[in-house]
Structures are given as C-alpha cells and as structure tokens.
Write a structure and sequence with these properties.
alpha/beta; 8-stranded mixed sheet; 4-stranded antiparallel sheet
C-alpha cells in the first residue's frame, strides 16, 4: 500500500521546491513517520498530487536515493530503505555526580560570584571587536596555506616581550607555543613529557579540580601535597613522594587559597626537580593580576636547569571565550613541543591570535590590566566590608574565601544560591577527597559588581544561616 505523504510547499520561499520535497521526505524517514519498507508514490503521481513539475519530484527522489534513504525498483516501486533504526539525537544531561556535571555547573553563567570569569564592566568589547574584525579580514586575504602550528609569530613575539617585562622570564619566540587556554597547555605538556602510567605527580591540596582530573586522565598517580601561607610544602612532598616525576603548582597566587610560594620554597622546589630529574608545570593563571602590591616574578624566571614548563593564559586577564593560552618550553624541549603541536595539538585559528597580538603591541593590554586591577581592588574591599562582620573571610587572589563551620554543606549552599543568580564555588570540591575537605565558599571578585554586592551578600548570608 502506498504511504500517503502530507508535504507542505511554500512557493514564496527562496528554497527550491525540489529541496523542500527532499527535506520533507527525509525528515519523515528520520523521525520514523515513514518506516523502513514503506512504499512511496511514484514521482509522476507525487508531482500530480503536489501540482509541480515531474522533474522537480524526480530530482528530490534522486537525491534521496543517493543518500540511500529510498530505493526504486521497476517491479515493486519506490520504498523507504531497510536500515537500522537510529535513536533521536539529543544532548543528554551529564550523569549525576560525574565530572562533566561539575564542570558544567562551575562554568555556567554569567552569575554573581562566579569564579574564573573576568568582569564584563572592564571588558574592552568594542575595541576587541574592531581588532577581531580587522584580523579576520587579514586572515581571509592570506594565501590558503597551513599556519604555523606553534602559533602566529607576531603573538609569540609580543608574549615573549611581555613575559620579560612583567614575569621576569627571558625566552625566545621559538620557545613559546600558543594553545587553547590552560587546559590545552597542560595537555600539550603531558603529551610531550610522555610519563609512564602510575608515575607520581605532586598536586597542591587543595588544588584546581580540573587540573586534578586531567592528571588522572593521563593515568598519573596524584599525590596531594599540603599548602600553607608559604605555598606548597616542598618538605611534605619530599616525605610523601620524593620519586615523583612531576609537580603542578600555582606559585604566583595559589589556587584557591591565594598564598604566594616563598623564595625559600621556590629554591627548594627547583633544587628537587634538578636532582630528581623531575618536571614542574607552573600554572600562572593570573599572570600579574595581583590586587595588592606587585606580582612576584614567575617561578620559571629562577629556573637555571630547564625543568620548569610555564603555562599562561588570557582567560582571566581578557576572556575565557578567546580559548587562548601559551606554553613556554624549556630550551631542551622546545623542538619536542613544536613537533607535538604540529602533529597533535596545533594552535587555534590565526584571527584571534593576530587580534590579541595587536591588542598587546598597541599597549592596550597593559592599560587594560591596570584598569582592571583598580576595579577589582575596589570590589574586593566592598566584599570584605559586607562579609567580615559576620563570617570568616579573606581575599585570596581574585576570590573571597569564606570559611564555613566543620561539616557545613557547602555544596547545598551553592546549589540553593544558584537559584538566585549567585554562583559561589564550594571549597570542598578543590580537595582530593571528601574526608580531608574543608567546607567553604569561593566568591569571585571579578563578577561582584559594586552595585550588586550588598544585596548579593545579604542573600548569600541568609542561605548560609538557614543551611548551617
């Protein structure tokens, strides 16, 4: 029996009638309205039914036949092809309690107190949009050839100059590899090092949960190392895992507690790496974006043995939407980094790189950082003013760390706060295990606009009082 077709054609649309017929039948097949084996009218009959030329329907049928959606035979007519039924495509929600659920919750937004996101008020949107448009035109006018997998030379030169000025790192553009943010830099470094599974790696406790999960995906054995007011406790690391092959640290401003790695511990860490032939990945996530005083030089600036892999990013200083970061490879590994980037992890598209290079070369980047630091310092002071009288709170990097009593459900507080447009990050998520975790909340300074701080803090405190 011939399956009746109810196709609606729009003769005023720009889409050709043949394409409309093809799309209508294809959709009916893919949605199960036309089951495998269902007989279709001949193209002559369907043309008469729809009031269109026979060639129009024939063209649609030929396209469906080429896609193996229908089959035509002189003896049996035209039928829907027999093929395995496919489930409807849909984006499934991450499994409850999975890493991706946590990832999506922590990166959702925008929201008040959200971590890791710059201020919208200080973002130079108009200027960057103009530079991006100019860079896109420049990219389109270039010959259609593969770009340098290490990244655009203009940007690598600007980064090298900036690092020498602001972070104390002397390096050449050939040592710099442009990556898709910090995660891209971490992945590239792990590929280059090629550590065997189960090799031990020092990880700050507490430390960035995405980094911890990435090290686990690399099948490394993570050893949590204590952190105090002087940064990662190197002596604790030497006691727990002197044979570790790698340490991942945030020496500038420890994430999330905000302490700066002391000079004595920097020296001790570098000495251990040299003697043990271990590597150190320096996550310089905030660069020189320190609110009080001048940022300390990067750990890599003290490295004379070539054991430090410096990873930087523009996510906090400009925008995470750029997905732009960089690695400074030790001289002995520069060629290996370049080869790995070329074959496995080439740099992002040239346009965003060229725009960022112009932004830096014309002096806008340093001016933007100065303006941003002033705005963030005012917001941090306002947060302390609202929270200090009633909570145990301190500014740590670009976050206010609000401690909660032992056993307090910081996850439940964060979940309820989300329904009011607030996005505090539970401190307990930054620990390797729930048994050693300390409850608390991390409140992003950058996403706490002055005009909203008082009301937002009052709302958050009411939630805390009710749940703790």
């Amino acid at each position: 029996m011939v399956k009746p077709l109810r196709l609606k054609l729009d003769r005023s649309a720009k889409t050709p009638l043949a394409e409309q017929i093809h799309h209508g039948i294809r959709t009916a097949i893919e949605n199960g309205v036309l089951a495998p084996g269902a007989r279709l009218p001949s193209w002559q009959d369907l043309a008469a039914q729809l009031g269109v030329a026979r060639g129009t329907v024939r063209s649609a049928y030929e396209k469906l036949s080429s896609a193996q959606l229908i089959v035509a035979a002189r003896a049996t007519g035209t039928h829907v092809s027999d093929r395995p039924s496919l489930p409807a495509r849909r984006d499934k929600a991450p499994a409850p309690g999975s890493f991706m659920e946590m990832y999506q919750e922590l990166t959702a937004g925008p929201a008040i107190f959200q971590m890791g996101v710059p201020s919208r008020e200080t973002f130079p949107a108009t200027l960057l949009a103009r530079m991006r448009a100019r860079a896109v035109r420049a990219e389109a006018s270039r010959p259609a050839i593969y770009p340098d997998p290490r990244g655009e030379l203009d940007l690598r030169r600007e980064i090298a100059a900036y690092l020498a000025l602001a972070r104390g790192i002397e390096c050449t553009p050939s040592q710099i590899i442009i990556t898709s943010g910090f995660s891209g830099g971490l992945g590239l470094a792990l590929q280059v090092l090629g550590l065997e599974p189960r090799r031990k790696v020092w990880m700050e406790e507490p430390g960035f949960p995405f980094t911890r999960h990435g090290l686990g995906l690399a099948r490394l054995s993570i050893v949590p190392i204590a952190v105090d007011a002087d940064g990662i406790d190197v002596d604790d690391g030497l006691q727990r895992a002197p044979d570790a092959a790698l340490a991942v640290v945030t020496p500038g401003q420890q994430a999330p507690l905000g302490s700066t790695l002391s000079l004595a511990r920097r020296t001790r860490l570098l000495d251990w790496a040299m003697r043990a032939k271990a590597w150190v990945i320096e996550d310089d996530y905030l660069s020189e974006l320190q609110l009080k005083g001048r940022a300390t030089p990067a750990l890599a600036s003290l490295d004379r043995a070539g054991r430090v892999i410096h990873v930087g990013s523009f996510s906090k200083t400009i925008s995470p939407a750029l997905r732009l970061g960089f690695v400074v490879a030790p001289p002995a590994l520069a060629s290996r980094f370049a080869e790995t980037a070329a074959c496995l992890a080439p740099a992002p598209g040239p346009a965003v790189q060229l725009a960022t290079a112009d932004f830096m070369r014309e002096g806008h980047y340093l001016r933007h950082l100065r303006r941003t630091k002033r705005a963030y310092a005012a917001q941090a002071d306002a947060l302390l003013k609202e929270l200090c009288p009633r909570t145990n709170v301190a500014i740590a990097g670009l976050a206010a760390t609000l401690r909660l009593p032992d056993g307090a459900p910081d996850l439940a507080v964060a979940k309820e706060a989300a329904s009011f447009g607030l996005a505090p990050t539970p401190l307990s998520l930054w620990y390797a295990s729930a048994a050693s975790a300390h409850p608390g909340l991390l409140l992003g300074v950058a996403t706490s606009p002055l005009k909203r701080i008082e009301a937002s803090c009052e709302r958050l405190l009411r939630i805390i009082d009710r749940l703790t």
